[in-house]
Amino acid sequence: MDTAMADPLCMVIKRLGDWIGRYSVQIVCWSGTDRRQLLTECQAKHIDLSAFPTDWADLQAFYTSIMDVGSHGCVSLGDVATWFGIEFDESTGHAHSALADARVTAKLLKQVMDGDYRVSPRAQEVRQRWGMGERAQTRLSSKCPELGDLLLKLKAEGK
Fold first, then answer.
1. What is the pLDDT of residue 121?
2. What confidence score (pLDDT) does residue 87 get?
3. How much is the pTM?
4. What b-and-e string marks burial along 43-60, b requiring 16 or more CB atoms within 10 Å of the CB?
């Protein structure tokens, strides 16, 4: 999206806060980078975030854990999408586009909520690029407990 003609950040934050309202909200993101950038921008522009949700869940931490990637640490959204068979295409857009990244992150969140982690045949491409062994594993762990809490909360609400 072209930001040259976008509304100022303070207006966007206010509208988002109004839209969220009084709901209990957890923001799901891919890595903590977006959160840090938002906080930095708002501090620099003296934008009050007191009404903004503070509960953030990092899907990158969760997927890094279930992929058992060991020393590879932070894994790119594109590599995880490949690993789990999600393509950046006409329906999502290209990688590193805010909307496309949000759509792919939403698809990954759906996998978390459904408990449906299907490793695609293309996972081996990622493993080879990283110099990992042959077998692609998916194991759940407690490295990202906030996503487990979110899943339990959503199931309790019948969503």
1. 79
2. 80
3. 0.70
4. eeeebeeeebeeeebbbb
